[in-house]
Amino acid sequence: MVCLASTANAQTGEKEMNAFISQLMNRMTLEEKIGQLNLPGSGDITTGQAQSSNVAGNIKAGLVGGLFNIKGVEKIREVQRIAVEESRLKIPLLFGMDVIHGYETVFPIPLGLSCTWDMTAIEQSARIAAKEASADGICWTFSPMVDIARDPRWGRISEGSGEDPYLGGQIAKAMVRGYQGVGEKAFTSNEQIMACVKHYALYGAAEAGRDYNTVDMSRNRMFNEYLYPYQAAVEAGVGSVMASFNEVDGVPATANRWLLDDVLRKQWGFGGFVVTDYTGINEMVDHGIGDLQTVSARALKAGIDMDMVGEGFLSTLKKSLSEGHITEAVIDQACRRILEAKYKLGLFQDPYKYCSLERAKKEVYTAENRAIARKIASESFVLLKNDNRQLPLQRKGTIAVVGPLANTGTNMPGTWSVATDLERPQTLLAGLQTVAGKQTKILYAKGSNLTNDADLEKRATMFNRSLGRDNRTNEELLNEALQIARQADVIVAALGESSEFSGESSSRSEIGIPDVQQQLLQALMATGKPVVLVLFTGRPLTLTWENEHVPAILNVWFGGSEAALAIGDVLFGDVNPSGKLTTSFPRNVGQIPLYYNHKNTGRPLPEGQWFQKFRSNYLDVGNDPLYPFGYGLSYTTFAYSDIQISSNTLPENGTLTAAVTVSNTGKTAGAEVVQLYIRDKVGSITRPVKELKGFEKIFLKAGESKKVQFAITPETLKFYDYDLNYVCEPGEFELMIGGNSAQVKSVVFTLK
What is the pTM assigned to this prediction? Predict the structure, then answer.
C-alpha cells in the first residue's frame, strides 16, 4: 500500500508540475524561452551593484536562467528579487556553485574522501556541504565529479574517486543522496540542493593525462570500465548532468547525441537537464566541427539544455530557428527541463527558499560541522609505510617540523575549495602543537621552497595559495633545517605538492616529489634521526626512493579546513589510520596508465616475477605498482581466515554467500576495509584479472574478530558483451577477499 500511495503522489505531483509549466510556457516569448537556457557567471555583480550590472539587465529582460559562483545570501536574495519582481514573467533563477568537497567547512579533496571507503561519511560530507551552501543562497552544486581516472598525470584525478567504476558508483550515489535527499523526500527541505554529476563522459581518460585532451576508446570499454558511476548517479536521482569537454567517438561530448540522448535519456532514463561545462559550446569551434551558430544548434539537438557562460544559445538559436536548422519544439524541450528543475526545487512556490539571513548566520562553518570534517579527514589518510612502529609519535621530547608545506594554512583545504575563507585553516605546525600539548616541544624550519623553478611554483600556488617563496639560497634553507633537525628526537617532513599542483589544468609530466624537496628529504634522512614523511598530494606520486629509505609515510592528501588537527590526531595515535587507496601508485611514470583491474595479454608475466623474455613486461621495472589499489596500513594488524562459501555453484536465479572472519591481531583498536573481488575466468570477450564487487568497513577492538559476509547473485557477475548486451555467462569464477587488491584469499565457484 505504501508503494502504491507513493506512486500515486508522484504521478499527481508530476501532473501538477506539467500543467503549471505548460501554462507558463504558453505565455513565454521565444526570447524568454531561450533565455532560460542561458547560464552566465555572476560577472560584475557585487554588493550594492546588482541593479546596475550587465547581468541584471539581462535578468530583467528574461534572458537568464541562472547564475553561478555568486557568493553571499544578501547578494543572491537581491538578484533573485530582480528576477521575480522586475522581469515580465517573474521566473526565479537557479544559483549554482562549485561546491566540490564542502562549502566553508571543507572536507578532504574527493580523491582523499574516497579513501575512507565510508559511504555514510561521504554522504554526510555532502549533506553538510548542502546545508551550508543552501544557507548562503546556493541551490545547485556542480558535484559529484565521478570521472574514472587511471593516469595520475591528469590534475583532475584529485576531484574524483579513483580508478574503479564500482566504488566510484557507490560514492556517486552517496554524494547525490547527501546533496539532494532521497526519492520523494528530495528537495523537500531548504537544506537540500540539486546535484550535477560530471563530466559526462570519459573526461578522466584524456590522452597523456593532459587536461581537455582527446579521449578515444571502444564502446565496450566505455560501458564496462567508465560509464557506471554516471549511471549510478542517475539511478540515485541526480537532477542535472554536466557534459564534458572531451570528444567521444570523434564527436565532442557537448554535441554527442548518442551520448546525451541515446544512452543518458533513453537507455538510463535520465529525466533532468544537461548543462555544458564552462564555454563548452564555444570550444567546439576549436574542435573543428563548425562556427558558433553551427555548434550551438548541434549542442541543442544533441540534448544540451543549458549553456554555461558561452551565450551561443542566446546569440544564435533564433537565427538557426529562422533558417530551419532547429525547431521550436527542441527549444521548448530544453526550456521545460530547466523550468522543471526550478519547480522541483520549490523556487516557484518560494523564490527565496534558499535566502534565509538567519540560516546564513547560524549554519555555516559551525563547530559541529568542523568536528565532523576533522573526523572524516582523519579517516581519509593512508598510512603507506610504518617500519619499526615509527608511528604513532609520543607526546614528549622535541619534534622538528620541516618542509615548505609545514607552515601554510591556505593550502590545507586543497583545490576547488572556492567558498572557504582561506584565513581560517590552521597550519600543520600549529595543528601539531595543539594536538601534542605543551609537554612536546616543536621546532620549525622551511627547509626548501616548493620547487627550484620559481615560475612553476607560481603556477602551482594560484588562487591565493602562495607559500611565500623564500629568497634565500637552497643551501641556506637546508642548513637551517639541519640545524633544527639536530635538536630533535624525531623529524616530521611536510613535503609533496601544493594544493594547486593538482586540479583543473594542472597536469604534470613528472609526478614525483619536486626536486629541491627530494634533496631536503635525503639530507634529513642522512642525519640518522627518525623521519616521518607527511605527504601532501592531490594525485598518486612516484615514491620509489621514499619507500626504500623513509621509515614512515603518511599520505594526507589535502584534508580540508580541519586537516591540521586531523593530521595531529593520526600522528599522535588518537586516531588509528584506516584509509585505503582508490588509485594505484606507480613506481615510475613509464608504467602509466596503471590500474588493478587490467586484462591479461596472451603472454602475461607470471605472478611474482619481474622480467621474462617474450612476456608482457618492461626491461627496467616490474609490472606491479608500488602501492596497489585498496592498500593502506594501520597501527594494528588484521588476519583473514580462509573463505567459506555456501555452495560451489551459483544457480541462475540463486544467491551464493561468501564469508571470511577478520581478526584484529594487534594491540590497538582499528578499522579495516574488507574487499571482495571477482574474476570471470572464461568469457565470450576478455575479462579483467579481478574486479571489485563489494566492500565493508568494519571496526575491531584489539583481539576482536568479526565474520563478514557477501551475497553474490548472477547480477553481480554481469558485464557488457561484444554487442553491448548486459549479461552474465555461465562458467567458472574466482572469488577473492582481502585487505587490498594484491593480497587476497580465493575460492572458485561455478555459475550454472
Answer: 0.96
- Cβ-contact 420, 461 below 8 angstroms: no
Quote the CA–CA distance of 113 and 109 in Å, as a whole number. 6
Residue 447 burial (10 A CB sphere; 0-12, 13-18, 19+): buried
- Residue 211: count other Cβ atoms within 10 Å of its Cβ: 18
Q: What backbone phi and psi angles, to 5 degrees, belong to 637?
A: -125, 150
Of 232, 133, 242, 235, the closest CA to residue 197 belongs to 242
Residue 527 and residue 482 in contact, taking contact as beta carbons nearer than 8 Å: yes
The continuous run of DSSP H or E covering 604 comes out as none
* Three cell numbers written together for 725: 548486451
Dist CA 727 CA 153 (whole Å): 34
- The tally of CA atoms less than 13 A away on the side-chain side of residue 329 is 1
Cα–Cα dist 328/72, whole Å:
37
Under 8 Å between Cβ of 635 and 668: yes
pLDDT at 44: 47
Q: Give 10-residue mean pLDDT values along the chain (752 residues).
A: 46 89 98 98 55 81 96 95 97 97 98 98 98 98 98 98 98 98 94 98 98 97 98 98 97 98 98 98 98 98 98 98 98 98 98 95 97 98 98 97 98 96 97 96 98 96 94 98 98 98 97 98 98 98 98 98 98 98 98 97 91 96 97 98 98 96 98 98 98 98 98 98 98 98 98 94
Task: Quote the CA–CA distance of 272 and 253 in Å, as a whole number.
Answer: 17
Q: How far apart are CA 177 and CA 192, in angstroms?
A: 9
Pair 733, 679: CB distance under 8 Å: yes
Report d(CA 265, CA 172) in Å as an integer. Answer: 18
Detail the DSSP E strand segments found in 215-356.
240-243, 247-248, 251-252, 273-275, 307-308
* Distance (Å, whole) CA 146 – CA 254: 17
Closest CA to 695 of 710, 705, 714: 710
Q: Which residues contact 637 (CB under 8 A, 6 or more apart)?
A: 664, 665, 666
d(CA 77, CA 99): 19
Give the C-alpha separation, 742 to 627, whole Å: 9
**Is the CB of residue 716 less than 8 Å from the CB of residue 657?**
no
277 is catalytic: yes
Q: Which of 688, 662, 685 is nearest to 677 (CA)?
A: 688
Length of the chain: 752
- Give the separation between CA 297 and CA 307, rounded to whole angstroms: 11
- CA dist 346 and 566 (Å) reads 38
Q: Report the candidate in 698, 641, 703 with the shortest Cα–Cα distance to residue 674.
A: 698
Beta bridge partners of 140: 96, 194
Beta bridge partners of 15: none
Whole-angstrom distance, CA of residue 252 vs CA of residue 294: 13
Residue 56 and residue 50 in contact, taking contact as beta carbons nearer than 8 Å: yes
Q: Which helix (H) or strand (E) holds 322?
A: helix 312-322
Q: Which amino acid is at 548?
A: E
Contact 543, 554 (CB under 8 A): no
706: Cβ–Cβ under 8 A, 6 or more apart, which residues? 661, 662, 698, 700
Q: Which residues contact 695 (CB under 8 A, 6 or more apart)?
A: 117, 167, 673, 674, 675, 676
Cell of 340: 522543471
Where are the extended beta strands (E) located within 390-546?
398-402, 441-445, 490-496, 531-536
Beta bridge partners, 658, equal: 645, 710
What strands, in cross-sheet order, belong to the sheet with 66-68? 66-68, 94-97, 140-141
- Terminal Cα-to-Cα distance of the chain (whole angstroms): 37
Catalytic-role residue among 98, 151, 277, 569: 277
Cα 130 to Cα 180: distance, rounded to the nearest angstrom: 8
If one counts every other C-beta atom within 10 angstroms of the C-beta of residue 14, the result is 13
Q: What is the pLDDT of residue 6?
A: 46
